[in-house]
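Entry:
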Amino acid sequence: MRARTIITGITVGTSLAAAVGVGYALGSQPGSSGPPTAPPIALANSDLGVAASCDDLLASYVDRALEQVGPYGWGGGTVFGAMEGGDAAGASEAAGAPDTARAGVSTSRSTSNESGTNVQELGVDESDVVKVAGSLLLRLRDGELLAYDVAGDEPRLLSTTRLDDARGTSAWVGDPGGELVLVDGRAVVIGTSDDGLSSTVTTVDLADPTSPTVVDATTIRGRASAVRLHGDVVRVVLQNGLPELDFSFPDGAFGQLRARLRNRALVRETTLADWLPTVDGTPLVDCADVAIPADDEIALGTTTVLAVDPVDPAARTTTAVATASDVSYFSTDRFYLAASGPQWGWNDCMGCRTSWPGSSGTTPLFAFALDGASTTYVASGEVEGTIADRWSMDAVGGSLRVAVGPSSETGNFNSVLTLREDGSDLVVDGRVDRLGVDEEIKSVRWFDDLAIVVTFRQTDPLYAVDLSDPAAPVLLGELKIPGFSEYLHPLGEQRLIGMGQDASLQGVTRGAQAALFDVTDLTSPRQLDVVRYDKGTYAGAGADPRQFTWLPDQRVALTVVSEGWTGTTGWVSVLSLADGSMTNRMVEVEHGSDVADVRLVPLASGRVALVTGDDVSFFDV
């Protein structure tokens, strides 16, 4: 593990400070005004900076915040909450017919994971409500960690451990609150408070799964928006938005003026504990580890990457950026943060697949290198357009690939861009434009040298983009069919399955569907078969890809389909593939809100565990 700085008993990371050569005196901890021991050295480029002292860091937050406060609080007018999201010279749109060699790119990149979770990136595990290791299955339910032995004829409950702060919220939209990762016999559980503003990281020793031991539980003021596992390092992305202040409201003839002045005074009285993640009221991040964006138009707040060692949970390291964004992506060796401008309105849907454009029409991107427990800023840039979610980004071989939607700085279409690190800059290397004119991106799937992009308005264009030469991506082919796929999953090198919605030719959605695609010839992708579910049904994988499981040896896909909102019924759809067609068998498994927690987990024995709201059993494929 990399070196740490200990300041008055607080363990803080030094990755950002070390990268830029900034030294702080012991008195210059969060909230103090002591001078740094040495003048700060510029970061990798001018897009991010480090404050010369903690007072200067606080002043940077306050100065930006004063521009956003008005007589009704944040936003300057009548607002209901802050929604904080989410072109280079020489780049040209690929044109012309693809050559034969281009059609040979493959979809062979794997997405399986031995922990039982269907993940975005091979080698990067993600938090889930269920994890497996050999014959041990762990599941989190209503604040309890349950351990099962799945080696026998039926799953056998070994222990139940109460974790009071391990509840989660918004399971339908993939909130990592109330989820876990499993590392070398220890479970790291991340829970979210009822108000969604705090997260508790609990480490449980499972050396004896019949009698687990809680070795650490730390509550952090900050909302977990992503949890990833790199080797034996657990990384948690924390969001701290605009502080909740006791704002005044207009009253009387001069009410707006008085309210504005009072509210601005409240902002000036904030401390770093109002802006940074805290433990027991003390900032978790050292001032030298908070990077300040030069662009003051991006969303105000703090995004922190917290690295935790399950063997020594107190050995935490942190790196932060003074902006709030839920749109981030982890590759095996990089962390990318996509920032955006503030938007005012309701924000009760963490992880949703929609993004609002920033005020400038561009999306800043910040790249950090991952090495052990360190997270070090290396480069940044921007793209014109909007980035909807983590699935819109991917990195392979030093190339960052991004699918962007339209904004005030683009045309009325979507694009796929490639970027490379040129020194400390992320520069656009190549691009393909005019994907889905007047349509929105519904799903993206990346492979080593290929992107599959689905857009939708009335029909479902599926685009195949060759990325084998990042500087010259080429649109190989497209397929237009009714409906759309919200989640795409590769089935080897020649097949792809999409889970989404059936729709009429006028774009009216009718119910869930599963579509099987042949991508042998990417210049002419084909839909081989489609299974349409009943009217009003929904494919769970569209919002949570972990509700899809592919069993390659059996050529069977298992996916959760539900119907109803006030009263919900959930089924497992068993899709058997043979000779380019699919047969479907529906198995009713759950009801109500517990449908969101249904998982189908492949086991080392070859069986499949079915996890429902109250039970763990073996599923008959």
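The chain has a mean pLDDT of 83.
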